Each structure stands twice: as structure tokens, then as C-alpha cells.
Known about the structure:
This protein has helices spanning 14-27, 41-48, 62-72, 90-96, 112-157, 161-174, 179-193; strands at residues 5-10, 30-35, 52-57, 79-83, 101-104. Helix content is 59%, strand content 14%. By secondary structure, it is of the alpha/beta class. The protein contains 7 helices and 5 strands, in the order E-H-E-H-E-H-E-H-E-H-H-H.
Amino acid sequence: MPNTISITIVEADRDRAMQIVDSLREAGDFDIHVVSEPSSLARQVEHRQPDIVLIDLTNPSRDVLEEMTLASGPLDRPVAMFVDRSDAGLSAAAIEAGVSAYVVDGMKPARVKPILDAAIARFRMFQRMRTELAETKKALEERKLIDRAKGMIMKARGVGEDEAYALLRKAAMNQNKRLADVAEALVSSAGLLS
Length: 194
């Protein structure tokens, strides 16, 4: 994130919004924008591309929570949600929707900065986990392709697994391509011929 963190605050009550802004100004140098009309949140977030979104809700419902979460882009940035009260299941729904911090008992100006820091840290942790999961899934898919290609070579050439792998690896080196790319080409070509 850049040196000056940009924050979009979603708060309909002007006095309450100003308390949050004042609290943040005391805690550091932030680029702060207040959205008072939640219906324009998605457009505002798209336009401003903030580093973090702070949402203050007095009385959340599952629909409002879902709408706010989707509009704030929780997979693109940390989202901290402050609620005055929470019914059973709302906190779990918020976390599942990607909210980085879900704080019950409203937004207290003195707690904003530590919660902001925690939301950013949690978001980064989940972002790393999502990246690692995507890389692991890709590696597994590539492994499956290589195994299929080896099986095709074994069947076509009547050779063992080690020799089939060596042939596949040699072809990849000769073509200056990744092993998975050569395996994919072989599997695709075989699919066209059958």
C-alpha cells in the first residue's frame, strides 16, 4: 500500500462520520473520503479505489450486510465493518463475505486505528493464503496433465513411467517450453485425434 493510506468511510450520520475522521486524523496521515449514501458505495469505491473501507452500520440485516460487503470489494481491499448490534450468524456471514474486521458495539473513535491495522494485517494474510491456494491448485492441475501425457506416451511407445517422463522432459527442453505446456499440447493434440 502507498505511504498515505486512502480510506473510504461509509457513515450516513454526519456527526458520527466527523468523529471517525477526527480520530483517524489524530492517528496518522490518511486520505479520507466519506460516503454518506450507502447506495452509491460501489460507484464511489470503483472511482476512488481506496486502500481500505470502513463501514459503520447501526442496525445491520443480512441483506444490507451482503450489499455493503459486495459494494466495498472485500477481495480487493480490507473492509472493516462496525455494527451497534449483531444477530446470530451475521458475523459469520460478514467474514465469509470477505470482511477483514467485524466489530460489534459500534465504532468508538479511539478504537478505529488499532482495528484498521488489524483489518489490514488480516486482509494481507488472507490475500497470501488465496495466492498460495491458487498456486497449489495450478500446480496440481499441471501435475495431472503431466501424468496424463506420461500415460499416453507409455501406451503409445510401450515404455515405463520413468522413460515416458524423460521423453516428455526432453521434448520440453528441445522446444524451450515448460514441461506442463508440452504435456498440455500433447493431451490437446491427442484429444483432437480421437
